[in-house]
User: Fold this.
Amino acid sequence: MRHTPEFEDPDDNRITSLRLGGRPPWRTTGTRVPYGHVLYAAAGMGWSADAVVERLTALGFADIERPGGPLPETVDRDDALLANAGGRTDNHLVWIGVDTPVTLRHLLDAAVRVGRSPADVERTLRSFGYRIAGEDLPPLPGTPDPRDLLLIRTDAGGGGQWLERGAQVLPYQVNQAADALGCGPHAAALRLVELGFRLPYTPEPEDERIIGDGRAAVGHVLDVARELGRAPAHIVARLTELGHAVPACVPDAPEADDPVLLSEHLDGRAPWLAVHRRVGVQPRHVLRAALATGRTPADVAGRLAELGHRLPEHARLPETADEADIRLLATLDPDRSLLDDVLLENVLRCASLTGRTPADVAARLEEFGYRLPDEVEYPEIRGSAAVRDSAAVRRPTVRGPAVQGAAIRGSAVRP
Assistant:
């Protein structure tokens, strides 16, 4: 039956109300009383859990949920709230049941809600008689971490399934979780082990250094191998084990100046040269590396090719590196490769910045293999004078009437 009238005893009103506030809505005698309700009532009234069960039984509640073991003599309100499933229905608390083991998700969620460690939550619920999923596993961590909930999802972005202790987590899941949480993969791996998960590898302190920024760079592999006193092949194997991409051309026997050739600033340190499979390495880097190492440009290009950095097939290099060529190439857009067309305005800018004539700039860029419009005749005058000479710039000489319109349109100077 449904209990509608209020009892004369205020305590009876409290233990039979859904919100334990002594007011409607009321619990009905024909439905099961959750064990969490018993605990929360005991905490609020200062009774033992047995006393709450006894009184509810006397009031006609025959189906009261309880664990298999003895009930607690005293219950703290905050402890009782650990049995809350984390939500409310019709403004009353929803309690977890005693029939199924408490999930890791609930333990971690409760730990975050009340600001306690997962180990403390697990220990308290065990003392109340709840069964915990993964009973044979070591205790949970004794330190709270609000990121734990994201770690135990197959998709750290918010989708996927919830994992239970004892499951194996694959390297890519560790890396995804680390990216989503903004922490290192090694830190994520350590926390997963503490939470009771299995990994296909044992986390090591040096993993963080081996992983670095996660980019597959030969320079990084060689630098870490030197620092840790390991063979480059060992670093490659460990990166593979950790689920990270590895560079394709790591030498078994590095040459002394390989780190210099592979560093963007030619100082043997990060940032490392990125592999651009389509556009290749920039000629300017080859020339600068030649001056830094004493090699010829051809020798530098050959070694870089062995390390996975190749020039485009139509690239041409001088026999010796020259500072003037380096300054010229530095005036080009750094994102412009040998596969991109060099327009008239690019030539004029280079001429203005280097003090060379546009004709000289165009000729030298073509010697490197850059593609320039062949219908344009570049001025022989230097610097800003070439830009002012609008007749020479805007009315270039073209080869044949068929390309005249295109040549004039392509030669317009941008403001």
Summary: The beta strands are 84-89, 92-95. The chain has a mean pLDDT of 87. The longest strand covers residues 84-89. The radius of gyration is 36 Å.
